[in-house]
Design brief:
Pfam families: Fung_rhodopsin
Number of strands: 0
Shape: flat
Number of helices: 5
Strand content: under 5%
Largest sheet: none
Structural class: mainly alpha
Organism: Helicocarpus griseus UAMH5409
Helix content: 55-70%
Protein name: Rhodopsin domain-containing protein
Radius of gyration: 28 Å
Number of domains: 1
Length: about 120
């Protein structure tokens, strides 16, 4: 395996290093929740809940990054383009081949075809 490939793979897995930072932020923000009086507990629970959600979502996304590498490579190389053939488009769009316009009834006297 080439050194460049090894560095790319290591970098993709190293993205997970940011997840513990969000876990630490979640734990630090829980201090106000545990030291609050009972009437304020719902208010002080919001910040730890937000940090916990950020931590969980970051963990899922960073865990999926290595498996997304082929897809991201395809975006960079232009392999994700889609082309629809003319006969297929004409068959499924309801148009007749050779007319060049959709079936629009003209209701105005100018003949513009706009209703």
């Amino acid at each position: 395996m080439a050194i460049e490939k090894r560095l790319v793979v290591s970098g993709l897995f190293a993205c997970r290093i940011i997840t513990p930072a969000f876990a630490i932020a979640s734990l630090v923000s829980m201090e106000n929740y545990y030291r609050s009086s009972p009437p304020d507990r719902p208010w002080y629970a919001v910040t730890p809940a937000i940090w916990t959600q950020i931590m969980i979502n970051t963990s899922v996304v960073t865990a999926c990054i290595p498996s997304l590498k082929p897809i991201l490579t395809d975006f960079g190389s232009g392999l994700t383009g889609v082309t629809i053939s003319g006969p297929f488009e004409l068959t499924h769009s309801g148009r007749k081949q050779g007319t060049g316009t959709a079936n629009v009834k003209s209701t105005s006297s100018s003949g513009s075809g706009l209703a």
